[in-house]
Amino acid sequence: xxxxxxLRGGTGDEYFLSLKSGAQIMKALNDAGYDVLDMLVDxxxxxxxxxxxxxxxxxxxxxxxxxxxxxxxxxxxxxIQALLDDIGIPYSGAGATAAALxxxxxxxxxxxxxxxIRTPEAMLIMPEGGxxxxxxxxxxxxxxxxxxxxxxLVGGASIHTYLATTPLELSQFxxxxxxxxxxxxVEQYIFGKExxxxxxxxLRGQEPYVLPVVEMRRxxxxxxxxxxxxxxxxxxxxxxxxxxxxxxxxxxxxxxxRHFGVSDYSQSAFIIDRYGKIWYLETDSIPHLTDQGAFVxxxxxxxxxxxxxxxxxxxxx
Length: 317
Description:
The protein has 317 residues and is an alpha+beta fold.
């Protein structure tokens, strides 16, 4: 029996979401007949096995494969992947290079544009201390018309993500984002319908298998908050998209998965505006695997499950 270590937790803002995803994966692995080892990384970056601090090298020596369920910082930005590469243990998800590429929203935008995919205008801000909030606000306003979305450069789940409709709101959210001390972007808000599209390598023998398009129901003039994302009902398979729109979205998600060099699975987010134009937002190289999330919702809609997902991915390692 193969033993699978499940890395979850981490040092980032998605710590608790990673715990949930990891718990879902551990259950699916257990149900699929694998021997599972819980590899919990605490908020300080210390790895624990059964409550005892240990090293990644020691833990990895006890398993055949590592399932990486750490979202955001260290888990999706290539850091954990680089360490696992050094150890020489196979793991799920994107490799170090692809993970770092997709985690950085500005880099992902640049790469998407390479293959002709439209992305909203965005401005990167690197807090260094002593920034002029008024100066930054004016610079953003001159470059992009309102509304604006302010969000972390790395990370997801709408954590520290804000919609600003006025210069005053923009200055407030820029100041708050600077207080976190992490790079962030200000992006042109696109009015329209939001879609998430998952892709899985090897599912049901397809390379890759593109899951059904999921509409992320959000306020007509707003964004889904983190709390709303954690609730049922916001992810609707097919949604209000026309057949041709679903076809275009699926093709773009597959193209991005291949172009980014992501392994095993990914999920890309898009907006279709009122004129039918598709705008690329971002790609998760480690999609959230909670029951109410878009990825699991799409899996279930085709009669699949986390069990089939883990058997497919672990079977390729």
